[in-house]
Amino acid sequence: MNPVTRAILQSWDVRLDVSLILVVLGTLYVLGWRTLRRAETPPFRLATTRKLTAYLAGLGLVALALMSPIDTLGGQLFIFHMVQHLLLIMIVAPLLLLGNPFPFVLWGLPKPIRQPIAGLFRRKSAFRQLFTTVTNPGISWLIFTAFYVGWHDPNLYNAALRSDTVHDFEHLSFLLSGLLFWWHIIPAAPYLRKPMPIFIRLGYLLAAVVPNMATGASIAFASEPIYTYYTAIPRVMGFTVMQDQMVGGIIMWVPGSMMYIVAAIILVVVHFNKQKTSQSKGIPSRYRNYEY
Amino acid sequence: MPTFRRNLIFVMLGLAIALMPTPAHAHGSGGTLQMNIVPAGAYQISLWTEPTPLTVGNIHFNIAVTTPPTDTTLNEAGAPVLNADVTVTLTPVGDTGESRTLTATHEDAVSKIFYNADTDITTPGDWRITVTVSAAEGRGSADTIVTIAETSGQPSRWLWYGAGAAVALTAGLFLFRQSRPASSPEN
């Protein structure tokens, strides 16, 4: 094997802080899932194996994105940093939401902690009202877009590569804003508002293609290195700084945009399939959009 | 409390304790760039240091040794040189203090393309850092002068921990008060 490839493949960064958070989140989910599964009788509707698999796969991909050579290479090649971001935003966030984590994690907590948290989401609680307002679809879309575009500013991006703390904050903000964004597409608890009609959801999703394409294209067509941090880093895989920047921009622009379009297609297919199933089972239309 | 749940709590506590001595620095390349692709014989050297700003105590050196780029018009690093002997020599500037030489290796580096070394510096002031590379293409060295301060002038990490604890406490209190007046949704 090529020595550089071998060095890259050996560059795992098994971080205890990330591992601990993932183990805690996974443990709480599994505990809650077991509890709620026992409370159900087949056919299971809440604690399904599909949800458990989606959630654990999401956590596994977080580990892969933040601790495997993908992360290490992200510090050396812009391309891999873009792959890492797309993984967190486009794949991890939807997978976690498909796991509908809120009720399971809540039921994994001990009662003295679970009750106060559940109390926050009582119908008339001030917290719930505030949370509902600040997470409305318009604000969520703006927060997501602001983080997504903002972090590609050269000063912020270079700062993230120079400081581990800033870098961690960048990844956390991508994941959290990604969860917020996808929450309006993939409804998951807490259900604070009626799901948006399908055509509004499609508009919300496809509107994100525009800033994504604009950012990706402006990076791909830049005539000089935007992210100067990479000029001092050893060049691996034969990419010059400019080639790396161009390909990274194209990854963000084309596969990144395609993911929104693929999600829109899946959304339409799932919606019509659910409608067909619900009609045959006689489920009232107001309950049809709640879970995927 | 069921045994399964109790065991899991013990595992989580064990992990939390294991986490405590984790060093705070460097899981990536990061740090302050002190030498930016400086020619050194047949090689180019880039050097990053941590913490930022440099202060007395533990100092971390992250070094990239590369060949010059094939296209010499490009102002960037070339391919990594992996099998080199790399040393870092620290000498106090304008002082009679002793210099010290460290060996930088891939062993402690997160990215095995870089060479890493660590040392403790107790004397503030200006220090000359000389990086020497020896590999198949011969020997080369480059140096720079850095200033190591007595204190960073930034809030201590404990202040951040204190602030975090205060926020957590306030949030806990808020949660407690919110949950008191009425029954929770699960009831």
How would you portray this structure in words?
The complex is a heterodimer of chains A (292) and B (187). Chain A is mainly α and 292 residues long. Chain A has one domain (11-287). Helix content of chain A is 72%, strand content 0%. Chain A is built from 14 helices and no strands. Chain A has helices at residues 3-9, 16-39, 49-67, 69-74, 78-98, 101-108, 111-120, 126-134, 137-150, 154-162, 164-183, 198-207, 209-220, 241-281. In chain B, the strands form 2 sheets. A 4-stranded antiparallel sheet of chain B has the order 1-2-3-6, with no helix packed on it. In chain B, strands 5-4-7-8 form a 4-stranded antiparallel sheet, with no helix packed on it. Chain B has 2 helices and 8 strands, in the order H-E-E-E-E-E-E-E-E-H. The two termini of chain B are 20 Å apart. Chain B has helices spanning 3-19, 157-179, and strands at residues 32-40, 43-50, 57-66, 85-92, 100-104, 115-121, 125-135, 138-148.
Give the strand content of chain B.
35-45%
State the CATH class of the domain at 32-148 in chain B. Mainly Beta
**How confident is the prediction overall: mean pLDDT of chain B?**
81
> Main beta sheet of chain B, described?
4 strands, antiparallel
Which percent bin holds the helix content of chain A? over 70%
Descriptive labels:
heterodimer; A: 292 residues; mainly alpha; 14 helices; 72% helix; B: 187 residues; alpha+beta; Immunoglobulin-like; four-stranded antiparallel sheet; 8 strands; 21% helix; disordered C terminus
Question: How would you summarize this macromolecular structure in one to three sentences?
Answer:
Chain A is built from 14 helices and no strands. Chain A has 292 residues and is mostly helical. Chain A has one domain.
